[in-house]
Amino acid sequence: MAGTNNRGALMEDWMLPSPSPRTLMSNFWNEEFSSSPFSNIFSDNSSSKPLDGIDKSKTSFDSSGEGTVQETKASLLFESNLFDSNEKSTSHGGLAERMSARAGFGVLKIDTSRINSSAPVRSPVTIPPGVSPRELLESPVFLPSAIAQPSPTTGKLPFLMPHNCKSTTSPVPKKAEDCLHDNSAFSFQPLLRSKPPNFSTAEKGASVVHQNQSSENDNQQESSLPSNSTGTEDVTDANLIKPKTCDSMFDNDNPSPTDEQEESKENQNLEYSSALVISPAEDGYNWRKYGQKQVKNSEHPRSYYKCTHPDCPVKKKVERSQDGQITEIVYKGSHSHPLPPPNRRPSVPLSHFNDFQIDGQEDICFKHSHNATSSQGSTPNGHIHDVHSGVLETKLSGSLITTDIADKSVMESGEAVDVSSTISSSDKNDRGTHGFIPSTFDGDETESKRRKMDVLPQRTLPPVPLTWQLWHQGLSGSLGLLCKPQASNLHQRSQLAQASIAQFGNVAAYGSVCLPPQLSAASGGFCFGMLPSGMAVQVPSHGTAMPVHIPGHPPAMQRYQGLMLPRGEMKVNSQGLSSLPVATRTASAIYQQLMGRLPQGPQT
DNA sequence: AGCCTTTGACCAGCG
DNA sequence: TCGCTGGTCAAAGGC
């Protein structure tokens, strides 16, 4: 269990030398973006050099070819998806709505059948339209709290949060600026799309706000950051994925140009035959609705939910449109417990959760890897706590990113897997046993599917003499890892991303900044994650309108907006935790490219 | 049986 | 103090 020491270590990992937001940002950007290896990932690969001279051939992934083309396509796709993905939707009613509400976000439908295409296993996450789907999207974040968490839900940022609302000259929306003056939660509105997403419930963009007691408010927006966008533009609530285009990102088969074109075209056309809808975030916690009211300044009724966990003070308000679309979610409070395990009711004693905890600080602990929405770590008491909270100590509450899934039983889990630990072979075993199985359905079906997932091929784990911390694990298997010490070091993060891929096979965090949203907010960064389905998950910075520019990254990746509210409140609309459908092959290509560019493994 | 939703009533804060 | 508004309570009923 990660005890106090671990916690302290984590803090060190995340804490930047200077407590000053500005300094922090400056350092971060200097380190992360000035010479970001990732920049090369999306730039001309021919000129790119493997980091530290590490031979990219070490990777088991085919990193050949497709580089530039794929990158370009990826960029285009991202852009395209930003605008178009919302067009597709399915409508859910009744149960779906309720589920989405319970989940904190909308129902998410994902067909990950193509995950690990070579595997004869269908995604446990395929959810028939109209049937309680739950979703999944996880981001390397949030967390939610995930939301999310992003995860957002549970994230706690000790010192970072206070600066989140600090804004100086950045194109912060008026509301964001307002946060400097008042504590009221607000949501930023996507400026790009005036057209409401045609998603069902969850899919539609919902604003997620984490109301926390602690943050102080400084907008952490650093206008000095280069940006090619206003930061208000790039909001996307794309939550759809076309399963057909979702090949495993680990599919080593290089797509033929034809396939690529087709897929790209398909994506662009948004012809999601079986739309894969991913909710912005579901927190994985169990909620009980205790009230509903029609608020004056809202056209939509507001529902009030409480976390059903005993003594957990977290509440959330959910507003949804008449058609069931969630328009806003506001979290309040911090969860005092880990995410509930999948298929378990809230009544399950907390102690049971320990079954999923990591045993040692230095040991990897994937005792349980079902969709963690937000990473959690073990407290000295043996309690799992959200990494964000534990490490960062803020009162950011709520889960931002999560994946809840289908009915009550679905993944509510995620427990945290903490984890600061070093990856070991034994861990691999655990992973195989506990894997990222999107628990998703009730009863036998869930079990059955879980078993199938367990059968997914495991990748060989390269020796990684590094201490890791799993800070996020998505239902679909996406996960984020933090390496420590010096997690802020991009190079290590790159390694981390690579290692995570190797380690967990089906997913890994990648991107400019493999940080939890909250932390990203503090640093002005953002995260990207890849789902097995090939969908890229964009984890927004929760910082105030933070245009992000990362040389070499696709345009769509260079912009993002999030808002950090005063006192730790976080509000992100659906776009805030959006997933970007990307042609699977493109995603694969990106991944492979990434793999090819990254050093073989983390180094301490 | 347990948990959840529904929904009207009640409470508290604020102008 | 009153009225408005948002938030919460709690009984009833559903699943």
Automatic annotation (TrEMBL):
Task: Tell me the keywords, alphabetical order.
Answer: DNA-binding, Nucleus, Repeat, Transcription, Transcription regulation
Corresponding gene? gb02778
- Specify where it is mainly localized: nucleus
User: Might you report a single GO cellular component term?
Assistant: nucleus
- The organism's superkingdom is given as Eukaryota
MF terms per GO, please?
DNA-binding transcription factor activity; sequence-specific DNA binding
Where, subcellularly, is it found? Nucleus
**Name of the protein in question:** WRKY domain-containing protein
PANTHER family for this protein: WRKY DOMAIN-CONTAINING PROTEIN, WRKY TRANSCRIPTION FACTOR PROTEIN 1-RELATED
Matches recorded under InterPro entries: WRKY_dom, WRKY_dom_sf, WRKY_plant
Q: Where is the composition biased (Low complexity)?
A: 211-224
| Annotated region described as Disordered, given as residue ranges | 44-66, 191-272, 421-449
> What PROSITE patterns does this protein map onto?
WRKY
Cite the WRKY domain residue spans from the record. 282-340
